[in-house]
């Protein structure tokens, strides 16, 4: 992962291809979301992702992902339940009434020999009936994502996005995770720049039409502190409180943000 370098400006042709992969990525995430209910395992949700990618001739940028030589990620989906923030590894865990789960899914197109384009998107949903506090966390995190996206306007500064996200989440008294950030996306899943979900406004590079970022707030009911489990991937809240996560791949245009992974009004 190389951050802090030049931010790519995508050409019209490249944007067309990113629209395509964005739409397909969102379509698959919605299919997975539709299957999440009590009794289903996170491993079964991963299988749905595997089949959906295969059917469309796409690959997973998650499977085998190993930045800096860490343990390769073993699935196509990140399924993070309750106090898990991100990078929950799918397996035999069954979903129960009252759980919340973040489903984070990515896809990459294959264009003959040349490297394809990436889509990356996540939702957090309630399984059955959840506590009002869990519901509020999910709604606020979704709203924080939308507030960040609204700032993706040419001429604004990079840190205006994170400032908007943080302001919205903290208004409700929640903790904004610092340890993981959003990112540029294109030929690589993670491209420059890093896009933190916090910070002071008016800093960093100016936003320009043709930039594409994955915006992904992670918000905890309690402290923003993170702990990583022994599997070396699963990130959980240090204080055991619930966490929510939403993500969209978003293009900056002359007319403002264009969400490339939006399919329905609800995500
Ligand atoms: N989709 C994650 C992100 O939003 C990255 C997942 S990497 C994996 O940046 F290896 F855990 F899949
Ligand atoms: Co993601
Ligand atoms: Co991402």
Strand content: 25-35%
Low-confidence stretches: none
The termini sit apart by: 27 Å
CATH superfamily: Creatinase/methionine aminopeptidase superfamily
Helix content: 25-40%
CATH architecture: Alpha-Beta Complex
- The helix-and-strand class reads alpha+beta
Bound molecules: 2-amino-4-trifluoromethylsulfanyl-butyric acid, cobalt (II) ion
Sheet with the most strands? 5 strands, antiparallel
Q: Into how many domains do the coordinates divide?
A: 1
User: Rg, please?
Assistant: 17 Å
Tally of helical runs: 4
Oligomer: single chain
Q: Kindly report the average pLDDT value.
A: 96
H/E series: HHEEEEHHEEEEEEEEEE
Strand order across the largest sheet? 7-6-8-13-14
User: What would you call the shape?
Assistant: globular
The CATH class is identified as Alpha Beta
CATH topology: Creatine Amidinohydrolase
